[in-house]
Amino acid sequence: MSAASLLSLPAALLKQTARSAQAYKHRMPLVGNRAYSSDAPSRTRFTYRIAAAAAAKRTSPRQPKLGQDFWTYTSTQRNATPPYLRSTKPQSGEDAFFAATVGGSPHDVAFGLADGVGGWQDQGVDPAEFSHGLCGLMAGTAYLHAEGLEWGGKGKSGRLRPRDLMQTAYEAVIGNPRIVAGGCTASLAVADGEGRIETANLGDSGFLILSPGKITHRSHPQTHAFNTPYQLSKVPPRLQTQHAIFGGATHFSETPQQADVETHQLRHGDITVFATDGVWDNLSAQDALGIITRVMVEGGYWFKSHNFAGAETLLNERMIRSLPTTLGGGSGKKGKEQEQELEVYLPALLATAIMREAKSAGLDRRRNGPFAREVNLHYPQEGWQGGKPDDIAVVVCVAVEDAAVEDAAAAPEVEQQAIKAKL
């Protein structure tokens, strides 16, 4: 069965899973939340520009093509068809991704990815069914979420939270007879109109948040041991019985409640990069920063304050704000002109640049990346050299602050400066 048919579930099922998320939220203790931002939320409005890129393990390096190697999305697209972005198995292998507006709001968006656990192949199970199923259900559930968003603690309800979203989709996968077995890691986020982003990370996929010239935050992997990440699993009764009688490989099975949850405050132009271990096994966080910096500087989105070493990296705010709000046919452009617009869409440039570098590093037998260093640390007798070929999925999100709100917020400061000048 194809991933596309697997994810073409009726709206009634998605609405039912959305209701289960509300019930689950009331009984699930919100533990492990860690707020890293020291900035108080501002009364501004944000929208989001998103792209995903992917490469299956067995795919040879090639020039990225729209709809085959990378995909574009924006929270501001009206009457988008389809209404959300999700992966399909042939293009991204066992890795999956999604992006969706929350309840159709242009200011609220959910996005993330999942990495199918390859060990299930030994049991005759296609790991891609679980990961793509989970992401498809998260996309549909987020889009159908109709309660609106509220960022708050006790007494406030209705806000879609990433761990609840993961739980809803996980329960639907467990209850879906078409997904017989499997497992995956998962990493996702929900961002709102005030630039606040909440993340849920389970396993060794993960994310970075970047501001001009620097990494402001990076997630930490959850593992039982080296190369053994936390993972969601569906173990059928037959395998449970076989394991109880004959022993054999252990199937780790965590729940969404064990995901690390964090909250952060984004600024205008901040970049969030989610990626599976096909990226992080071959590229360090600093490698990713270097790739992002190259694309941003070449495009004029970042620039140096002065022409000397150590000069501050600044954001070209107008260029970020000019990122298109409508893509594809909705932009009014057609044919070659439309294709060219999508090829230079900033989130797509960033996602494909990371994907291509990770792919190249994974195939390079002389380049020791993070995975090679870890193997040589824990198992020096292996003598591992070079990268680690794997499926790759990347999702990039750029936060765009509304110009009118920002200008209004800056007005008192400008007026004060004018008064000082007169004095």
From TrEMBL:
Its cofactor is Mn(2+); Mg(2+). Belongs to the PP2C family. GO terms for molecular function: metal ion binding; protein serine/threonine phosphatase activity. It comes from the Eukaryota. It catalyses: O-phospho-L-threonyl-[protein] + H2O = L-threonyl-[protein] + phosphate; O-phospho-L-seryl-[protein] + H2O = L-seryl-[protein] + phosphate. Its EC number is 3.1.3.16. This is Protein phosphatase. Keywords: Hydrolase, Magnesium, Manganese, Metal-binding, Protein phosphatase. Residues 79-399 form the PPM-type phosphatase domain.
